[in-house]
Each structure stands twice: as structure tokens, then as C-alpha cells.
Design a protein that fits this description.
elongated; 3-stranded antiparallel β-sheet; mainly beta; single chain; 60 residues
Length: 60
């Protein structure tokens, strides 16, 4: 399963934050994940893409 997201990420620390792994609870990342760097509290928005397995779905 793969999904993309558009988000505005922020933090209040003095240093940049690098997100190097992304997945949903109960899954594991199986596609290359491009790291996201969050430099502070006023960053612009970012596009992210995560590919995970197994596929999780709810009936209905």
C-alpha cells in the first residue's frame, strides 16, 4: 500500500529535525522513503510518500 501526504511540519528545537523512516502502525516501510528535514517552526509545506506492507483495511 502506498500513500502520499502534503503537510506543514514544525518544531521548536534549536536544531533541524530529520525524519528518516515512515510507516503506519502495524506495517513496515517497503518503499524508499526520502528523508524529510524540518528546520523549525516556520517551514513551508512538504510532500511525503510512504510505501508499506501489509495492506491494512477496515470492512465497509
Amino acid at each position: 500500500m502506498s500513500f502520499s501526504f502534503h503537510a506543514r511540519l514544525a518544531h521548536k528545537a534549536e536544531h533541524s529535525l530529520e525524519i528518516v523512516k515512515g510507516y503506519l502502525e502495524g506495517t513496515e516501510c517497503v518503499a524508499p522513503f526520502m528523508p524529510l528535514v524540518v528546520t523549525g517552526s516556520y517551514d513551508g509545506s512538504v510532500m511525503g510518500h510512504v510505501g508499506v506492507r501489509p495492506i491494512l483495511a477496515k470492512e465497509g
